[in-house]
TrEMBL record:
Protein name: Phenylacetate-CoA ligase
PANTHER family: CAPSULAR POLYSACCHARIDE BIOSYNTHESIS PROTEIN
Top-level taxon: Bacteria
InterPro entries: ANL_N_sf, CapK_Type1_Caps_Biosynth
Length: 466
């Protein structure tokens, strides 16, 4: 059915594509913003500025509620905690009595982990920048609470759904006709969102992005910072003066915002970047305040930073417990990122603890001479609609070829799945690049212990070619 609809979409004119996008969003936002959404918006708005002692009480109460619900409703966790007296735990300080759950355990046991029937759940498919395919299942209430939390953060800078927004994410919405016409966007007429392709970051195309952004005049930019950075960098290099007082704020998603990226975005678009950290699985939130400090929102979860001996540390790997993950509980979840905590006190009015730096999400990319830079978010999304690919790594040693190493679950993988995986890659790199897929038993981690989904060994060539 999905393939059939895709064929129909390709034959439709641009105006109908926009209607299709609009209709899709109306259906999805109805789910996201109905139910308890308004209640959660009011709840988090009212809790702004609470003293840290009150925030910690809320955090502890939510932790105990989640833990007991999970123990009673998840067959996997009931077995996982068999050596722990879960019902006796009454404080967050006792959280280390619980074992840590890793992404591969979550992926392999998802049917026993979830606490609701799949036909009552909203599936969320994630590629993940570590290269592991993962689908989590969520209650509508969890989705509504998360959207409310995010909207409350963005509302501080004036954002509300319906205000003119330019969105840069991993949606593949263009046809060959669009590319021939140098048209790299589709528009949701109802909510005033224009979705710009993140698959065509090439110098010969970027001027069309800027021309359209100038005409569209969005109040807000949302999406992959590495993509918006390419646009800003091009504009600055060509002395393009983006109109002042147009963009009120930029809200990055999915990737780390480097100092270089932030400087270029704020200079070209003449506005401020407000960063945030979460994940498609449902991780708790970290938000940047008006003073530029990163706050862990402890109403949304527990953040542990551990060293190699699983001892609390100022800098180390991040272990998360999310209060918005009742469908697929995330309790002491090793997300694969690292964090550096801060001892500073912020005077912005937000009393949540501070983070000095998020160390784990380092942006990387593959380069295609045909389509330009393919950022980490779009690389990870090549796993969408596949199964049986436990993890993968893409290596680029030349402009003409990439090698993709894959670790397989052979019982679930098939020629059909490989075709979907290859088609996803073709959507990103075009038709000219050679793609070699190699099955391996495992993929080694870096000396740091981190696993890299992308190894780009020709950045010097790319800078000369782009």
């Amino acid at each position: 059915m999905k393939k059939y609809l895709s064929k129909i979409y390709n034959y439709l004119p641009h105006f109908c594509h926009n209607l299709f996008v609009t209709g899709y969003n109306i259906v999805n936002y109805k789910i996201r913003m109905s139910g308890n959404y308004s209640k959660w918006r009011k709840h988090y708005k009212n809790n702004e500025g609470l003293p840290i002692e009150e925030l910690k009480k809320i955090q502890e109460s939510k932790f105990i509620d989640l833990l007991r619900y999970t123990f009673n409703n998840s067959p996997f966790y009931a077995q996982f905690y068999k050596d722990v007296d879960v019902l006796s735990i009454s404080e967050i300080s006792e959280i280390q009595k619980l074992p840590i759950i890793h992404k591969e355990i979550l992926r392999a046991n998802i049917d026993q982990i979830i606490t609701l029937p799949k036909n009552r759940a909203k599936a969320s498919k994630t590629g993940g920048t570590t290269g592991k395919s993962l689908t989590v299942y969520k209650f509508e209430n969890d989705i509504q609470e998360r959207i409310a939390i995010l909207d409350n953060f963005r509302a501080k800078e004036g954002y509300e759904l319906g205000k003119r927004t330019a969105w840069f994410s991993g949606k593949s919405l263009l046809t060959k006709r669009d590319i021939k016409k140098n048209r790299f966007w589709k528009t949701d007429y109802w909510y005033n969102v224009r979705y710009y392709s993140t698959f065509h970051m090439k110098d010969t195309f970027l001027k069309y992005y800027i021309e359209n952004l100038t005409t569209y005049s969005p109040e807000f930019l949302v999406g992959f910072p590495s993509t918006i950075y390419e646009i800003a960098k091009y504009g600055l290099a060509h002395n393009i003066d983006f109109p002042s007082n147009t963009v009120k704020a930029i809200f990055p998603t999915a990737e780390t915002v480097t100092k270089e990226t932030r400087a270029a975005l704020e200079l070209f678009f003449k506005t401020k970047v407000y960063d945030q950290y979460a994940s498609s699985e449902g991780a708790p939130f970290i938000f940047e305040c008006k003073l530029g400090n990163l706050h862990m929102d402890i109403q949304t979860g527990v953040f542990e930073v551990l060293d190699e001996n699983d001892t609390p540390a100022k800098e180390g790997r991040l272990i998360l417990t999310s209060f918005t993950s009742y469908g697929t509980p995330l309790i002491r979840y090793d997300i694969g990122d690292s964090l550096l905590l801060s001892d500073k006190i912020c005077t912005c009015g937000n009393n949540n603890p501070l983070v000095e730096e998020i160390l784990g999400r380092v942006s990387d990319y593959i380069y295609s001479s045909e389509t330009g830079k393919i950022n980490l978010g779009n690389v990870s999304n090549t796993l969408k609609d596949t199964k049986g690919i436990i993890k993968f790594q893409v290596i680029q040693d030349s402009l003409e070829r990439i090698e993709i190493k894959i670790v397989l679950d052979s019982a679930k993988y098939s020629n059909h799945i490989e075709k979907i995986f290859l088609d996803n890659w073709r959507d990103r790199v075009g038709t000219k690049m050679d793609i070699d897929i190699t099955q391996v038993d495992d993929i080694a981690v870096e000396k740091s212990g981190k696993y890299r989904i992308v190894q780009n060994n020709i950045k010097h060539l790319i800078e000369n070619n782009s």
